[in-house]
Amino acid sequence: MAAAMALMGVGVVVLVHGSLSQKIDTQLSRNQYLDSEIAALDKQIDEIKKLKEQTQSLLARKKVVEALQPNRTEAVRLLDQLVRQPPEGLHLKAIKQSGDIVNVQGYATSNASVSTLMRNFEASPWLESPQLVEIKASKLNDSPISEFSVNVKITRTHQDGGGDAKTTASRPSAPPAPSHSNKG
After folding, report:
1. Taking CA atoms, which of 28, 65, 74, 168 is between 20 and 30 Å from 152?
2. Residue 155: per-residue pLDDT
3. Residue 179 · residue 83 · CB < 8 Å
4. What angle do CA 103, 109, 112 make, to 5 degrees?
């Protein structure tokens, strides 16, 4: 009877050990499956991060393009206004733009011509706030002239459904100045 009990005890130990081993193997296979799925999800997360970065990059580019779009004709309007605004006896020699400020340099037969230019800039629908930087007496080909430098601000525009409108206080537009063939 003792031998049968011992044999039964060994049998129970073998059955419990076998059952526990099977459960451990099953759990290890489940853990391996979870590890492989986690690795696959990590790859997908990395791909999603890359796609988000690409999306952000494209959105940033789009914003730059959208910011440039409203002012794409600005250079054309600026040059058009610079051709139309100078009165008789005034010649432009240099134009430099920094942001929305344009520095205009040139020669005038009189200070009154420079004043007229500044009034014309103020009356322009695309230019505003002219400021005289410098005016000095000079000689060109032994003729007395005034050499000047004026800063003027470009009026930024936006599309308002039917056309361009100023973003600042609106002014009535001045009729275009007559064009002259003696511009420099």
Report:
1. 65
2. 77
3. yes
4. 75
Amino acid at 130: P
The pLDDT score that the predictor gives to residue 162 is 41
171: left (phi over 0), alpha (psi -120 to 50) or beta: beta
132-174 pLDDT, tens digit each: 888 888 877 778 888 888 888 887 654 433 444 444 433 434 4
